[in-house]
Amino acid sequence: MKIFKALTIAGSDSGGGAGIQADLKTFQELGVYGMSALTAVTAQNTLGVQGVYPLEMEAVAQQLTSIGDDLQPAAVKTGMLFSADIIRIVAEKVKVYGWTNLVVDPVMVAKGGSKLLQQEAVQSLITSLLPLALVTTPNIPEAEILTGLTISSLHDREEAARRISAMGSRYVVMKGGHDSSSEGVIDLLFDGHEFLYLESKRVETRHTHGTGCTFSAAVTAELARGKAVPEAVRTAKAFIQAAIEDELGIGAGHGPTNHFAYQNRVRGEHHDTI
Ligand SMILES: Nc1ncnc2c1ncn2[C@@H]1O[C@H](COP(=O)(O)OP(=O)(O)O)[C@@H](O)[C@H]1O
Ligand SMILES: Cc1ncc(COP(=O)(O)OP(=O)(O)O)c(N)n1
């Protein structure tokens, strides 16, 4: 049996909805062996982020070395990187180990407003990491910070995707979850020349914690399975749509998405069989 392997370089979410927990659950659901290099520990639940505790640089570097020296991931994703120092180490290791299937989710701020990336690290993300990315997956606020644009229309989003593409990312997925002006949710995939529009029904729910992590982890898992980027992004869109629609409804605040939902549908099971 061929084993597909993927690595997430991200923060821990104690509540299990975002960060490495969301990534590893998504990898597993998509039939991919998951590995993780932790950048920070966060104390989080559905009500918000109560604490952020970055790891020492040496701890991040050693995790990446331990994985790189032995386990050859077929695809790698980054999530919460927190500081310019951590970004520098990650970029260095990506180059040393030749991790070309790199998905960069430019995580900056949690939905509740807590900072997951220091402001001074944004420039490092742009100059050190985006040029190494196969796919970058900004949401609208992240794209605004990366580009300096104010995004209020689909045309603005296309322009932001063009600018992020010009920063060196081979593909850009401009996610549309934050654009509540349209009935559906439109994600744009830009390959440097053309746009592919992926539209789905907007789910009215407060349980969207970890949508970005889960979506980018699904793209990464599919790349690890050998899929091309457009196909990987289509599957990720279906995965996140199912995960939002079949909500778990846990916690008093913004609950996590349902990582079981996509496979339950594939198997034809009802979601209360979790
Ligand atoms: N209410 C929703 N209904 C359906 N899909 C959604 C909804 N909110 C987000 N998504 C999808 O979840 C993914 C993440 O979207 P977005 O909210 O833009 O990013 P983030 O979670 O990083 O803030 C995208 O694929 C988007 O289309
Ligand atoms: C540890 C950690 N990493 C990333 C996030 C942000 O995740 P995201 O998928 O963007 O979801 P929201 O936090 O915006 O709901 C996080 N919260 N924690």
UniProtKB/TrEMBL annotation:
Name the chain's protein: Hydroxymethylpyrimidine/phosphomethylpyrimidine kinase
Query: Which keywords are on file for this protein?
Result: ATP-binding, Kinase, Nucleotide-binding, Thiamine biosynthesis, Transferase
Major enzyme class: transferase
Q: What pathway does this protein act in?
A: Cofactor biosynthesis; thiamine diphosphate biosynthesis; 4-amino-2-methyl-5-diphosphomethylpyrimidine from 5-amino-1-(5-phospho-D-ribosyl)imidazole: step 2/3; Cofactor biosynthesis; thiamine diphosphate biosynthesis; 4-amino-2-methyl-5-diphosphomethylpyrimidine from 5-amino-1-(5-phospho-D-ribosyl)imidazole: step 3/3
EC numbers for this chain:
2.7.1.49, 2.7.4.7
Q: Name one GO biological process term.
A: thiamine biosynthetic process
Q: Name one GO molecular function term.
A: hydroxymethylpyrimidine kinase activity
Q: Does the keyword Magnesium apply?
A: no
Enzymatic reactions: 4-amino-2-methyl-5-(phosphooxymethyl)pyrimidine + ATP = 4-amino-2-methyl-5-(diphosphooxymethyl)pyrimidine + ADP; 4-amino-5-hydroxymethyl-2-methylpyrimidine + ATP = 4-amino-2-methyl-5-(phosphooxymethyl)pyrimidine + ADP + H(+)
Q: Which residues form the Pyridoxamine kinase/Phosphomethylpyrimidine kinase domain?
A: 13-258
Q: Does the keyword Nucleotide-binding apply?
A: yes
Organism equals Paenibacillus wynnii
Family recorded in the similarity comment: Belongs to the ThiD family.
How is this protein annotated for GO cellular component? cytosol
Stored InterPro entries: HMP/HMP-P_kinase_dom, PM/HMP-P_kinase-1, Ribokinase-like
